[in-house]
Write a structure and sequence with these properties.
This is Sarcosine oxidase subunit delta. It holds the Pfam family SoxD. By secondary structure, the chain is mainly beta. The chain contains one helix and six strands, in the order βββαβββ. It is 10% helix and 41% strand. The strands form two sheets. The protein has a four-stranded antiparallel β-sheet with strand order 3-4-5-6, with no helix packed on it. The chain has a two-stranded antiparallel sheet with strand order 1-2. The longest helix is centred in the middle third of the chain and has 9 residues. The protein is globular and about 45 Å long. The protein starts with a strand and ends in a 6-residue tail after the last strand.
Length: 87
């Protein structure tokens, strides 16, 4: 089992976490958002090969945070509370 670094609780088993989103995928603002832009926000993902930043939630403490992860070898980099240079 892999350990994920929660910035609030420290290293915890991966089963305590839930993937939230790709970091930097900002929700469009306003009521006048076109269908194409809204669909892009909901369904289009970069799906990078290699290093990426993602939003995760630690289900035990309920906190959301950004985590750096490599999609090839699954190595975990640092994790940051949202608002600490997180996208």
């Amino acid at each position: 089992m892999q350990l994920f670094p929660c910035p609030f609780c420290g290293p915890r088993p991966e089963t305590e976490f839930h993937y939230g989103a790709e970091a930097g995928n900002l929700r469009p603002d306003g009521a006048e958002v076109g269908a194409d832009r809204w669909a892009g926000y909901l369904y289009m993902r970069a799906n990078p090969k290699g290093a990426t930043r993602e939003i995760w939630v630690h289900m035990t403490c309920g906190e959301f945070f950004a985590m750096e992860r490599d999609t090839i070898d699954h190595k975990i980099g640092r994790s940051l509370a949202l608002g600490e240079n997180a996208e």
